[in-house]
Amino acid sequence: MSRAQRRIVVVTGAGTGIGRATARGFSAQGAYVVAVGRRAAPLAETAAGHPGIEPLVADVTAPGAAELIVGTATQRHGRLDVLVNNAGVAGGGPLGSLAPETVARHLATNLVAPLLLTRAAVPALTDSRGVVVNVTTSVGSRAWPGSSLYAAGKSALDSLTRSWAVELAPSGIRVVAVAPGAVDTPLGAHQGLTPQQQADVRRWQVARTPLGRVGRPEEVAWAILRLADPAAGFVTGVVLPVDGGAVIA
Asked: Active-site residue 150, yes or no?
């Protein structure tokens, strides 16, 4: 594959979990991947052994981050073909415990950052007739006590996916979403949960997943790569659950 044939992909939240698996999956297909995350060490681990992955340390919620991320991809490679809005924070707590700063942090990461990043990417994606893949959650449409803030932000991103799919179709841009269920990622540890609390959450999740297990990051990455593939060129506006059947149980 020549350099001109290799797709240029941006993946946010690429330091661990689904983002890491997605960045490596695109790299294995021959793409150049700008892997975005807040911490240098996990990004370096994502890129290790994958020469097509270029780490970019950036906080997607910082002022100017969207322009920095898109500009890095286009200045280094001259184009942008796929944007994967994967960075997110989970948890939050019951309604009565939600402090204003918690609400602001969740919405800034899970909703505002993807919106601003997609807006910044539209000119480049128009040139390439590219794809936006939003990573949401399959249980956003169901009651989720204790994580209502997370579910609400991700549900709003589902809505944006459908609206953008129609709005951007005349520009040749497809917009899709992948909605994971319970997946084996470090998200619980990042929330500050103890090992016992993480185990309790996992038991609760498995009990509500018909396939009886949690998913693997690579299984979610598979769906992201398939929806972003040119062969899926007639697919837009879809929100695909990858959740072991949890959303329909």
From this structure: yes
